[in-house]
Amino acid sequence: MGPDTALAPPLLTMSGITKSFPGVRALDGVDLEVQAGEVHCLLGQNGAGKSTLIKVLAGAHQPDGGVITWHGEQVALRSPIAAMRLGIATIYQELDLVEALSVAENVFLGHEPTSAGFVVRGSAARTETAALLRRLGHPEIDPERLVGDLSAAHQQIVSMARALSHDVRLMVMDEPSAALDPDEVENLFRIVGDLTAEGVAVVYISHRLEEIRRIGDRVTVLKDGRAVAVGLPAEQTPTRDIISLMTGRNVEYVFPDRPNSGPRTDPVLKVQGLTRAGEFAPFDLDIRPGEIVGLAGLVGSGRSEILETIYGARKPTAGQIEVGGRSLRTGSVRAAVRAGLGLAPEERKAQALLMLESVTRNVSVSSMSRFSYGGWLDRGREREAARGATRELSLSPDDPSVPVRTLSGGNQQKAVLARWLLRGCRVLLLDEPTRGVDVGARAELYAVIRRLADEGLAVLLVSSEVPEVLGLADRVLVLREGRVIHESPATDLDEHGVLDLVLEGAR
Ligand SMILES: Nc1ncnc2c1ncn2[C@@H]1O[C@H](COP(=O)(O)OP(=O)(O)OP(=O)(O)O)[C@@H](O)[C@H]1O
Ligand SMILES: [Mg+2]
Fold it and tell me: At residue 314, does pLDDT exceed 70?
């Protein structure tokens, strides 16, 4: 930064921002200062207030108190349009695209009409959208495709194209890397680099601390709705310090020990020649009680498809599955659940959660028979059981009567997992179990998964985070383009080796 910019007021300051929801003080006097051209990282545990703060900044929430300045002048961000007019663009944690509209329509949604109709319409919108997508490194996305047909990663690119279609001075990204593959994360970092080189400021939220080191300039840490550290240097501040600021304690980011003796009993899950033409080649797998098997591979390598096919949500074109020595009818979720399979799916919002229902109901929904007697539901027992499962994962707030919709992203993920803890299955299929979960809670989650395995559960784990697969699983299968290209004990692999396998197909 040159001497001139040092004298200029910051691009953005937020001071003493407060925001309450019924029963929750989400922001309790937060300060944030952002300079033009910097990457300012916002860190904090699940529920700390990060998304709430950036929604205030985006004009989507009105704060109860506090002052916001832009180029040194006080402003009110009364609506998303008002924020956008200043040049503040936001990529939300839960993307807010309209699935039934095309890419180009989404990009130009919300652009104000002029006397000549819309600023950009029809073919002009398509041409301009195509140019934005090229700039974002994704010329292959067709501006006319429906957004609902795109992968999560491509949807995020569309969300960024929409942000760039305005004259953006500050780009806010709420956990943009959570749904991305390693090479897509590289592309994201390149985009962030291009933006900051043009003087655009970026506010970046992530639970992956190594990302903060790579692209961050300064860090603000939130805890329980307060900023506990403002503007720390991103590169020099030790990880230990950041984690203890976030959590108020020293968390060792370690994986639980593996049991000394390997599993001895017969496999509880046997998969033979399971195939879905066009998605994955014949897939074989045995898992014994007590074993955690990891599936590594890129998005689109067939990982999630295999999990969903075992679970009966997709019908295989060939192959057999046995659970506990008994043949399982394929293509039936009901049969799979009855046989003792549980799936914590990747997209919690669309596939798993009843957003308007309470945490209790979301957690107990798969175990209702345990709480009903002759048509009578024992709500007290239902609530107590749900509370036990959510406490085990430190789900916040510690009040299972609140609707799931009001939980922070990471706490919604915990609600999905708590459901399967409560249900007590024989085989647990976990698809990206720690997506959006903070570092402190991760360690707890890993310990819970290992404990369940020690108690005799078999676990099949899919994760984009290679260290997680290597640290948690006993055995690892590496998938590439729908085919298993490597299988070994987790201790025989390192992160580099796995990345070479998933990206190049060889070590
Ligand atoms: N619409 C809402 N109604 C009620 N409470 C809410 C609402 N939105 C957020 N909260 C509460 O505000 C607090 C802060 O949530 P926020 O989403 O900002 O957390 P976060 O830091 O983004 O967490 P995560 O890392 O899990 O995404 C949480 O206690 C959450 O339950
Ligand atoms: Mg959030």
Answer: yes
Task: Verify that 134 and 36 share a domain, yes or no.
Answer: no
Assess whether the C-beta atom of 24 lies below 6 angstroms from ligand 1.
yes
What is the extent of the structural domain holding 354? 269-504
Q: pTM for the full model?
A: 0.83
3-state helix, strand, coil in the chain (%, to 5): 35, 25, 35
CA distance 269 to 327: 10
Q: Which of 146, 166, 186 is the last residue of a domain?
A: 166
Chosen domain end from 142, 166, 190: 166
Same domain, residue pair 290 and 228: no
Residue 73 in any domain: the answer is yes
Q: Is the same domain home to 184 and 305?
A: no
Residues 295 and 439 in one domain: yes
The answer to whether the peptide bond before residue 397 is cis (omega within 30 degrees of 0) is yes
19 alpha carbon, distance to own chain's centre: 24
* Residue whose entry in the numeric block shows the structure tokens 């490597």: 486
pLDDT value at 251 more than 80: no
In the sheet where 292-296 sits, what is the strand order? 341-344, 427-431, 458-462, 292-296, 475-480, 483-489
Whether 410 is in the pocket of ligand 1, judged by its Cβ within 6 Å, is: yes
To test the ligand 1 pocket, which listed residue (46, 226, 399, 408) has its Cβ within 8 A of the most ligand atoms? 408
Would you call 400 helix, strand, or coil by DSSP?
Answer: coil
Q: Is the CB of 395 under 6 A from ligand 1?
A: no
Q: Which residue's CA is minimally distant from atom 18 of ligand 1?
A: 49
Residues paired with 67 in a beta bridge: 15
Give domain status of residue 92, yes or no: no
Whether the Cβ atoms of residue 174 and residue 51 lie closer than 8 Å to each other = yes
Considering the domain architecture, whether residues 201 and 296 belong to the same structural domain is answered as no
Q: CA–CA distance from 255 to each of 156, 311, 412, 452 (Å)? A: 31, 27, 23, 14
Residue 35: partners with Cβ closer than 8 Å, 6 or more residues away: 1, 5, 10, 11, 201
pLDDT digits (tens, 9 = 90+) for 79-106: 998 999 999 999 987 778 899 999 999 9
